[in-house]
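Limitations

Structures in this collection are predictions, not experimental determinations, and the ligand pose is part of the prediction. Treat each record accordingly. The example that follows, with pyridoxal-5'-phosphate as the small molecule, is included so readers can see exactly what is and is not provided: the inputs are given verbatim, and the output is the predicted complex.
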Amino acid sequence: MQTFWDYRFAQRTQRMKSSAIRELLKFAENSDVISFAGGMPAPEVFPIKEFQEACLRVLSNNGPASLQYGSTDDYVPLREMIARHPVRYGINVTIDNILITSGSQQALDLLGKIFINRGDRILVESPTYVGAIQAWNAYGAEFVPIPMDENGMITDFLEDRLRAGVKFIYVLPNFQNPTGSTLSYERRLKLIEMADKYGVPIIEDDPYGQLRFEGENLPVIEVLDSQTRLQKDCYSGNVIYLSTFSKTLAPGIRLAWVVAPPEVINKLILAKQGADLHTSTFNQIVAYEVAHGGFLYEHVKIIRKVYKERRDVMIDTLQEHMPENVSWTHPQGGLFLWITLPDCLDAQDLFDDAVKEKVAFVPGSSFFAEGGGHNTMRLNFSNAVPEKINEGIARLSKVVKNHLVKNGHS
Ligand SMILES: Cc1ncc(COP(=O)(O)O)c(C=O)c1O
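Predicted complex:
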């Protein structure tokens, strides 16, 4: 039944849907459910003492300024710290290339606001980050999926898709959410070459790049892109890079950043003024106090160690309990792995039984912009302690086995 309000909402509001993950997290909030559903960091690694001390220092030394309004592109020392970050060696980035946002999720929304006209086609990995689909749907985006394998987006399909015309390419190069796979070096180069040939910008969303616990670091696409160009004082290439403090410090502070050509940053600033004026001054100053001077560098080493252990436990337990015809990715970092079930199973059907067994995951179909992936699921390995991972995977394997039996497999 249509209500009074239904007639008043804008057309764009009709396109807004709650993310399946938000809905699923409601089940997971129950404390006896072992949840592999959310993208939550391990709470055990939050630097609570450092935040406590930094809050006191900021309030004592910088109280009024930290509680005052700031400008949209504040806080300069934080932007300087980001500009100096080692992942950008070999690229000239100044603070004019950087905007602090209230989470990368806000950056995705602001990018939608400044770039997407209704009907614009956006090339996305298939599957891709559900938060981007959600943000850009509201601006009327159409999604052009590109298949993936364990080395990320299959760039052989790129030219064909680009020739048909797209507004931009959205790529998650490291330990992708949801699959955990990483874009190979050769494919990064191919992506840059193709984007350049067709004059299409790349949005590189990289929340997990610093959480590599195995294998060699691969260069940031924006850095590779800058190497193909004449070096200027300030990056002015084809890539818009996003990253966040959510996975290295804490998601609750809602702090992230964009590195982009100044022309793009200036438009994002205008869009952000309309959204929230600026990101919390207090959070920016406190985060800077915590992170600078080498703390963050040391802290991510601890996070990597904890997540590697949890990934190993999850993979060992999957190997022990899952039937033979179930496979999973082997991420070299990040927070997620991706399970592929036999084609006859539907992860959505499994979900209800899994919740009865008190274990939760995200059915993979949520991550496909244009449908598909019925027999896939995303598991988060960062949030639960090893004993819970063991128990949760044993419960999940039982549900999978029951469904296989129901479908005539013994
Ligand atoms: C690929 C990707 N982009 C963006 C975000 C949003 O991050 P933030 O907490 O900075 O808003 C996430 C969060 O999980 C993510 O996985």
